[in-house]
Write a structure and sequence with these properties.
The protein starts with 15 loop residues before the first strand and ends in a 9-residue tail after the last strand. It is 55% helix and 5% strand. α1 runs antiparallel to α4, α2 runs antiparallel to α5 and α4 runs antiparallel to α5. The protein has a two-stranded antiparallel sheet. The chain has a two-stranded antiparallel ribbon with strand order 3-4. It is built from 5 helices and 4 strands. β1 and β2 form a beta hairpin. It is mainly alpha-helical.
Length: 188
């Protein structure tokens, strides 16, 4: 368990931060960019949870995902093959895939791309999805500079899929989705 008695340490005042193995890296590094984007995605999911109706079963799923995102942050903050490191597991990915399948089963097939919007809850989840996609791009860039856990990359990819399906679920199983009209208003 983590115990924090003092929030500021002054160790990052020169623009570096510590990784799980004790090494220090620039706060502008690709690895830290990915960690920051995962943190932002987690925060956006937290905001999205506040828009859900009381007792919505999706809340428990999003709470578990938020916890998984802390695991992901630990995974990204641990370079190399450090024994005992907290890593995203295949079971976490399988659970996420199952959650996607469960929500997707009630959705009608798409005949257009979906614009972010619809209900406030769906819009908030779409925003979390977009931030997750940025986190995935940042993790891929970090992986290009040094190997990250392959499960970390897969988890981020599946999470954006889950959030897309969850947003459609929140839009009355897709009935209230806002669909893209190619050419949009210019054709009116």
């Amino acid at each position: 368990m983590v115990k924090l008695n003092k929030i500021y340490t002054r160790t990052g005042d020169a623009g570096t931060t510590g990784l799980a193995d004790g090494s220090r890296v620039s706060k502008a590094s690709a690895r830290l960019e990915a960690i920051g984007d995962v943190d932002e995605a987690n925060s956006a999911i937290g905001v999205a949870r506040t828009t859900l109706a009381a007792g919505d079963p999706l809340d428990a799923t999003l709470a578990r995902i938020q916890n998984d995102l802390f695991d992901l942050g630990a995974d990204l903050a641990t370079p190399g093959d450090r024994e005992g490191a907290l890593r995203i597991t295949p079971q976490q990915i399988e659970w996420l895939e199952s959650a996607i399948d469960d929500l997707n089963a009630a959705l009608a097939p798409l005949n257009s791309f979906v614009l972010p919007g619809g209900s406030p809850a769906a819009a908030a989840v779409h925003l979390a999805r977009a931030i997750t996609r940025r986190a995935e791009r940042a993790a891929v860039a970090a992986n290009d500079q040094g190997t990250l856990s392959s499960n970390a990359l897969v988890y981020l990819n599946r999470l954006s899929d889950f959030l897309f399906v969850a947003a459609r679920h929140l839009n009355q199983n897709g009935d209230n989705d806002v669909l893209w009209v190619p050419g949009g208003p210019r054709n009116q």
